[in-house]
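FORM 7B: Structural annotation worksheet

SECTION A. Query
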Amino acid sequence: MTLPHTPLPASTPLPGARLGRDPERAIKRGPRRVPAEAVAATQRDRLFDGLVHEVAAKGYDNARVTDICRAAGVTRPAFYDLFAGKEDAFLATYRHGIAVVLRLMEQAYTDGGPHWPDAARAALRTLLDVLAGVPAFARMALVEIDAAGPAARRERDRLPESFRRFFSAAGPGPALTEAEHDLLVTTVVGGVQATIRGAVAQERTARLPELLPVLTYAVTAPFIGPEAATRAARATDAGTSVTAPCAPPPAS
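SECTION B. Predicted structure
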């Protein structure tokens, strides 16, 4: 059940999990000059956070580059050194954030055990917990992406392909051809994506983890049957909820 991991360090934060203007993230002045590459990387990451928070709060259309730069504590010239414009910055932020989410899901899937339903449920739980923990990213990536232009919508429409890896051990399903199996996976993933998007659009992001039983059933039932899927959906999780790196802990 080993999956190829997205090449990101385990501590890579999800965009929107931090504030761009956090003083701790300021580039420290000192006798040694900070390499230009390090400065650019820091500015890019702060702009990722600034963009997520501004887009989530104001909507894509109303979030200006000036607002994003102010939220990130980065100058406009530095922004345009890194991105061609707001759409380019949105796409870069989205791609980076999805890569972080997938890496966390892959780790959960691998750690979920040798049985596919358990592993699939672990990946789903991670997805829901992480999005609930960083609601600004959830809104930016799932709702505001509709307004971000055709390139962003194409990225969104390709997302189900990235989730196919979690069905590699699902089995063929009930007497399906390979093409039918692929279509079934696309349908299942699309349904999960639409359900989560609907909850985020309705401002129910914090309650996403409550969807775990029904989404586990929806994901597994077509491949293992209703009885086994019911058992998977009713499984009890051990340990604490999953959070994105650098996200604040859940409120008690």
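SECTION C. Observations
The chain has ten helices and no strands. Residues 101-233 form one domain.

SECTION D. Sign-off
Analyst initials: ____
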